[in-house]
Specification:
single chain, 5-stranded mixed beta sheet, mainly alpha
Amino acid sequence: MANNDNFTRKNASNPPVWHRQPARTDSDTTVRDRRALSILALVGAAVCIYAMRRADADLWGNLAYGRFFVENGGPGASDPFSYTCAGCMWAAHEYLTQILLWQVYHFGGPIGLIALKCVVGAFCVGFLWLAIRTTTADASVWFPVFLLATSTIARYFLFRPQLFTFAFLAIYVAVLFRHLLQRSNVLWVLPVVMLAWANLHGGFLAGLGVLCLAVAVRVFQNANAFGTGRRLLAGTAGLWLALWASVLVTFVNPIGWRLWPYVAAEMFHDTSRKYIGDWQATLRAGDYWSTVSITLLLAILLTVGWLSRRSRPLIGGLRAWQWVASCAPLAAMAFVSVRHIPIAAIWIAPVVTLLASQLTEQREASRGFRRARIVVAALSVVPAVLTFLAVAVQPLPRVDVAGTTLGSKHPCRAVAFMKQNHLSGNLYVPLWWGSYVTWQLFPAVRVSMDGRNISLFPDDMVIENLKFYLTPKREADLDAPFRFDTDFLLVPSDALVLSDISGDHRWQTIFMDSDSTLFVRRERALTSMTPLAEATPMPSSAACPAWMQ
């Protein structure tokens, strides 16, 4: 067989075995240079992991839910936080993450959250490094790709359950690449990881997806070695066993089989993709940093794939185009939804280094190729350099809760007003403010809607809430809050519906500032709150702090 992978066959039922040429370690760099690049990669990864210290609107909800689970022995059968969906089944699939976030915050405060994020992020980046180093030992190849992938992924290292999906997916990818390239065979680890993953975040589906992708890669390896026939499935037994075992352990969770209907709903939830920023298409979401980073990574993939198409018949058992094709599903997902960018980068990065390392061996004598490689490497490290600069501007270990964390406006003064005056009841509130209100006012106040817009609330209820606050005033359904047992109504000052609500005799204004207006249902003004309801609203100086306390 005319290729440099040196295939041999044990017998007709076994998968192909190849002995890859040792990856070059003496390219254009000295031993000292390689060590310096390794140290720089370690420092760069650490800075990228630490860089993102910004809260999101769901953080307060995750802390409140975790606190509730600790105090009540785990998730219950129904939701205690909302009044609109009090009898609904809550798919509390992230309960372990929420418990962990609360415990860390309870004992360590914001610094504890940062430490947890850095530890889990380090696991993700560490296994990404292992997957990349499985494909090459050439520092001139892996260093720029590793930094580009790390800076792309680390932007999503928020204080959210998704962080565990990135870490566990990196473990899956590292184990699978080592298996496919015949470096090690520890597939038994994957179902063990999945057991924890399915109880920490619903993104465990990504692990099952890359397992299916690995089966396809093995089949193509067999096809390239043996041709068509029964031997196409040779050596796939371990992968199939790991896949089915991983599926089975997902049922070991507090809600059992009900976890899967939730996962299906999340995968096909068009409402989130229409209204929720991190579910929107990458080119629409406005995250230009992530868009440029993933585009650059894909451009490098296509370039090395194209240049490798004739450099060697088989690379790791596949043709170059087949490795590129393995990235296509994840690349498409990355542009369908911005939240899939880290998932795509974790698989694509080792594919890039595998192809690039073989290409480097074949074309190292070309001066033009070496210059082009330097340009590509320089572009790859630009996002990491910008991350360094951002950390240098704000190096302190603090959790940023300012800016647009709660949207263009915030409810902090209105919530402080309710707390100061011991107001209690049911509050109709925008989806993106619900978690903050719960954190501050539960159990005295229950909300109409929060960030659990897939795992708890019916889709028509979510759409009703979003349309009430986001559609033009004359198209808004002013009766939406009255379909539930609503006592109070909180409206952002930039909501177009505010002027109509202010003129609606069914509501009485009790608080107003530049960010929001708080109304009480007029017929309940004296029975559901203090007599302050009919007095002049007491101003509050409590604004949202810049940093989490």
